[in-house]
Amino acid sequence: MAVDVDRDANHWSELPAGRLRHAMAAALSGFDRRALSLDGRKAAAVVIAIAAHEGKNAIWLTERSAGLRAHAGQLALPGGRLDPGEDAETAALRELHEELGIRLPRSSVLGLLDDYPTRSGYIMTPVVAWVDVVGEPIPSPAEVAAVHRIPLAELDVEPVLAPVPGSEHPTIKLPMLGGHLHAPTAAILHQFREVALHRRPTRVAHMDQPRWAWE
């Protein structure tokens, strides 16, 4: 069952869970996902986990701990490098458990989005997963300083494209949490909105990141 965009685009947060899960799974299964070869880069995965809270469907964004060596304090989806022998789905679910204490079965995965190449040398695979009734996230203090719950309706915002010095491609920003969410997370969530909710086959892997994210 497809989501009726004209009627429901502003109400994804409150759609019945069963209907929303079915619609997103169908949209992702029909999406011609593009995978990228590593070419010397490291494989990583992030998870877009949809969970209901007080009747609203939302995703979790984490604020990275100040003590992390890379990208401390930045907003990000739960995720990290693949361990030896892991695929993207396994790694994404493992990272969700390690960062937020949420353990999900592999059957919770609804699908994958396009691989995204980062300036810091990773090929990032976004995994979309459905969270059934679970407790509140318990963030790992070593990795997560704070957890933000973003209702799905708040993802339906116009992206901001901005030039990047030294790049032929712009970066993408999403107005969120009183400021802007930056790529790669902004690019991934924009594609999630377009593909999983609007059923529009939108590509974002060519979009760059701000210069401060190039390390």
Describe the structure using short key phrases.
20% helix, disordered N terminus, 29% strand, alpha+beta, 4 helices, 215 residues
How would you sum up this structure, described in words?
It is a single chain. The chain is 20% helix and 29% strand. It is built from four helices and eleven strands; from the N terminus they run H-H-E-E-E-E-H-E-E-E-E-E-E-E-H. Strands 1, 2, 3, 4, 5, 6, 7 and 8 form an eight-stranded mixed sheet that branches.
Shape: globular
Radius of gyration: 16 Å
- Topology pattern, helix = H, strand = E: HHEEEEHEEEEEEEH
Give the helix tally.
Answer: 4
Strand share of the residues? 25-35%
Class based on secondary structure composition and strand pairing = alpha+beta
Residue windows where pLDDT falls under 50 for at least 5 positions: 1-10
The tally of beta strands, per DSSP, is: 11
Described by strand count, sense and barrel closure, the largest sheet is: 8 strands, mixed
Average of the residue pLDDT scores: 88
- N→C terminal distance: 42 Å
Estimated helix fraction: 10-25%
